[in-house]
Amino acid sequence: MLVSFLLSTLLWLLYNLLRLLGNLLRLLGNWLRLLRLLGNWLRLLYNWLRLLDNLLRLLYNLLRLLSSLLRLLGSFLRFLYNLLRLLSSLLRLLGSLLRLLG
Asked: How many angstroms from the chain centroid is the CA of residue 48?
């Protein structure tokens, strides 16, 4: 009877130890899943920051393009202004020549 009691107690302890081991393994699995989820969130945050960086670079390059286009427009307007001054001078010269001739 004592042997039966000791055997059943030993089996009960073994059963509970195996259950404890199973629970610890499940807990470890949950921690690993949590770490993987945290890694995914960090990767997502990194990708959002890269997207923001690329958008800011795009905005910077668009502003540089706009600046270059405005400088080009300024040069073109200066060219037109000088061309009009040249035409005005030529017309005045033509008028002076016509007055001298006629």
From this structure: 6
What's the pLDDT tens digit per position in 22-78? 999 999 999 999 999 999 999 999 999 999 999 999 999 999 999 999 999 999 999
- Cα–Cα distance for residue pair 27/20, rounded to 1 Å: 10
Euclidean distance between CA atoms 46 and 52, whole angstroms: 10
Q: DSSP letter string over 44-100?
A: HHHHHHHHHHHHHHHHHHHHHHHHHHHHHHHHHHHHHHHHHHHHHHHHHHHHHHHHH
For residue 40, give both structure tokens. 């995914």
pTM of the model: 0.65
